[in-house]
Amino acid sequence: MAERFPERPFTAGSWVSRWDLVLLPLVIGLFFLLAWAGSHTPAGHYVGPRPELSLNPALLPIYALKTTLRMLVALAVSFVFTIVVGTWAAKSPRAERVLIPLLDIGQSVPILGFLSFAVLWVVKIVPDPILGADFAAVFAIFTSQVWNMAFSYYQSLKMMPKDLRQAADVLNLSRWQRFKRLEFPHAVPLLVWNTMMSVSGGWFFVVASEAISVAHHQVLLPGVGSYISVAIAHRNMAAIGWAILAMFVVIMLYDQLAFRPMIAWAEKFKMRPTDGPEPQSWMLDLLRRSRVIAAVGFLLRQSLARAGVAGRRVARRGWSRERSRVVRLSPRIGETGWNLILGVAAVATVVLLTRYILAGVGFAEVGHVFLIGFYTLIRVLVLTLLASLVWVPVGIALGLNPRMRQRAQAVVLFLSAFPANLLFPIAVVAILRWHLNPEIWLSPLMMLGAQWYIIFNVIAGAQQIPGELREAADNLGLRGWPRWRRLYLPAILPYYATGGVTAAGAAWNATIVAEFVTWGGHTLTASGVGAYIAEQTASGNQPKLVLGIAVMIIYVLLMNRLLWARLYRVAEERLVED
After folding, report:
1. Where do the domains of the chain lie, and which CATH numbers do they carry?
2. 3-state SS of 268-292?
């Protein structure tokens, strides 16, 4: 479905259509909502040792709007980060050796770890404590969204077929042309699904990002997350019910105004046609029929084209000559110097961290944290395996059936974006009532928000299976397990690897709230590094907090290197080398 951008300058009579008269109230309504939320939000009593937040349901629309704005700002920053870092890591082997481990470390650092340091620094730098806490919350939401998007974009560029790269070389495309005509369009389908998953995953951590508790100091930002946190603390079931209703409305609006248009728009970037009807979106049709939007797009493309020409002229005159002189240096000397810098930085970091940790704790504490970290590792591995056994078949079925996928999309989006924290009180009540073992029955809570990374990526991978391959499998009589082993599983392997590594990372993050659960005056803990980090964050013990985060990072990196990196390698060998 082609976009309707005009090919010539606009005349006065072509600027407005009847569809613009439909779009105009929506835009005005958006600005009205922003102004209304800014003028009606209570302020001045959210920061302190015992802050209070009103549970009046009438304030929920304002809270929901403020949470949505924070998530949109974090998503915009995540998108820019994804394009820059993903492209750099995919195209530069030297940068790849640094950036991919950094992404691994980033997704393994728990959100409370980011929040602890973000609050301490941002609140000190920004004079207004509410504004500083807002910056810290946006940063925390960014850390819950960006890793999945960056890994998916990086994987799309790495898995790009050789014939497309060779065609770009033959056509002598510039870097901008490669990005615009080849790389970004190839990555769009998977990036769209992972963006949806990142937004949905952000809702899981929105409670932690808006209800911040560090070193006996608490910050409650006006938002749905803080509303849920206060409702759980007061054991107010009516408020929790209102929060569930508000979440349902917000997620449905996300689906209609953002997610469905994105999926329908991404169809035009697929290299192979999709079987069945194309996804439809009334919002996307409205935007395409709007002449004002078309005019803005036309002017924007003209400006980018002029800027691109000017940029190429400047590059040809100066910067490219200086760069050519640097490139003439011996590659072996540059590689050795780069490795030396990385080695020195790594050794210095290890020494400083070791001295800092051992200054506040002893070797016995270090051994204890590694032991409970192993318990958490076992939980994550077992739950990721169980989630894969359940959701890989479901994701393949939805990806291969467009009608079923469109019907299930709203349900899957709601379940994935639904804050699993609201279900924690039910788990606490059930464990206490039936005297269950928290070491076992708290564990499934960590996969409530993480499992959706698997199904979203598998759906995106199943959509890319060519129809001719499925027809060939039918002609060869492949049924049952042979069909799965020879066609479906190899086809979705790279997508599953992306979903699996981010799901496991999200599960590690979720251990902080799943191994340390409170409901009113009751607190249940399971032996694990997640509960350890939660306890040290609340008490403000920085050396022990750093120790817990360091142990979690070590375990996550070991799991990624021994499991997920091998899956990536197998997928790349099968899809790129052929």
Report:
1. 71-269+361-575 (1.10.3720.10)
2. HHCCCCCCCCCCCCHHHHHHHHCHH
Six-digit token pair at 88?
């750099």
Q: Mention every residue, 6+ apart, whose C-beta is less than 8 A from residue 3.
A: 268, 288, 297
Q: Name residues whose C-beta falls within 8 Å of residue 528's C-beta, 6 or more positions apart in sequence.
A: 372, 373, 375, 376, 379, 511, 515
pTM attached to this predicted model? 0.71
Other beta carbons within 10 angstroms of residue 152's beta carbon come to 29
Cβ neighbours of residue 238 under 8 Å, at least 6 residues apart? none
Q: Which tokens is 541 given? A: 């013990």
Amino acid 171 reads L
Query: ∠ at Cα 424 (195, 213), nearest 5°?
Result: 75
Torsion of CA 110, 115, 121, 124, to 10 degrees: -170
List the structure tokens of 535.
């306890």
The answer to whether the CB of 521 falls within 8 A of the CB of 502 is no
Specify the DSSP class assigned to residue 182: I
Euclidean distance between CA atoms 454 and 8, whole angstroms: 45
Who's near 100: CB < 8 A, 6+ residues apart? 89, 154
Strands 47-48, 211-214: pairing is: unpaired
Residue 560 to residue 355: CA distance in whole angstroms: 27
Nearest Cα neighbor of 439 from 372, 388, 522, 385 is 372
Q: In the 8-state DSSP scheme, what is residue 9?
A: P
Cα three-residue angle 304-310-315, rounded to 5 degrees: 120
- How does pLDDT run along the chain (578 residues), one tens digit per residue? 444 434 344 444 445 556 556 655 666 565 555 555 554 554 434 555 555 678 888 888 888 888 888 888 999 999 999 999 988 988 888 788 778 777 877 776 766 666 666 666 665 666 666 677 788 788 888 888 888 888 889 888 887 777 777 777 777 777 778 888 888 888 888 888 788 878 877 777 777 778 776 555 677 788 888 888 888 878 888 888 898 888 888 888 877 888 888 888 887 776 655 555 667 777 777 777 777 777 777 777 676 666 655 555 544 554 444 444 444 445 555 556 656 775 666 677 667 667 666 666 778 888 899 999 999 999 999 999 999 999 999 999 988 888 888 778 777 777 777 777 677 777 888 888 888 888 888 888 888 878 888 988 898 888 888 878 888 888 888 888 888 888 888 888 888 988 888 788 888 878 887 888 877 667 788 889 988 988 887 777 778 888 888 888 888 878 888 888 788 778 767 655 44
Residue owning tokens 């082609």: 2
CB atoms within 10 A of CB 364: 8
Specify whether the CB–CB gap between 493 and 574 falls below 8 A: yes
**Among candidate residues 267, 142, 152, the one with its CA nearest the CA of residue 201:** 142
Q: Is 459 helix (H, G, I), strand (E, B) or coil?
A: helix
Q: Which residue has the tokens 């000559």?
A: 321
Distance CA 461, CA 334 (A): 39
Q: Are 392 and 457 in contact (CB under 8 A)?
A: no
